[in-house]
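# nightly structure sweep
# worker-07 picked up a monomer target from the shared queue
# config: single-sequence mode, recycle default, output format = structure tokens
# input follows
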Amino acid sequence: MTQARWDPRRLNAVAVALPEGVTPPGTRGRLLHAALKLFAEFGFHGTSIRDIAAEVGINSATLYAHYRSKEHVLADLVLIGHQELHSRLQEALIEAGGDPATQLVALVRAQVLVHAEFPLLALVANQELHALSPEHAAPALALREQSREIGAGVIASGVRRGVFHVADPALAGLAIGSMGVRVASWFGPDQPYNRDQVADAFAEYALKVVGADPPSNDPRG
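# output follows
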């Protein structure tokens, strides 16, 4: 088997993208995209209001007409990222049917795909969340907990039904979730794998973590 070549990801090679339907029109939307690019590359504290305004081609005073502060811009991006993940997990669970192994495969694939499709957004939503005040972080943290509960519920169901065999379901859930989150840190056009290849492989790894065989009605065929 030929070893796939691995190249370090270049941030400037990754598209600055937000999920469909969430970008505000006009200058506010341009500001979100500019902030996403800069926060991903330099972090929240390494990016100034002037940097964001300059990226869009406006002055700082004009920016403040759309956002009260830099933190409000970050709060919007963090919430968008968590909303997209939570929505995709809910959809995946509904479409997966009642088998826990099939559900786990669907959830892991959904998580990996959203982190691979919007890696910069996922990077900012996860790594810059700490920069928000408790008030601004609360909506995203609530969605994060709901997303965690979806995965925990599937693992608990699999253990109860004898489909999964794992000593510590809580740690298994954390391990599986962390694995998917890290995809945003390295996935990009420089890598030798496409999104579906990564999603399929990580789903198989997740099944091994919980001690399950691949489901007979695996949607990947």
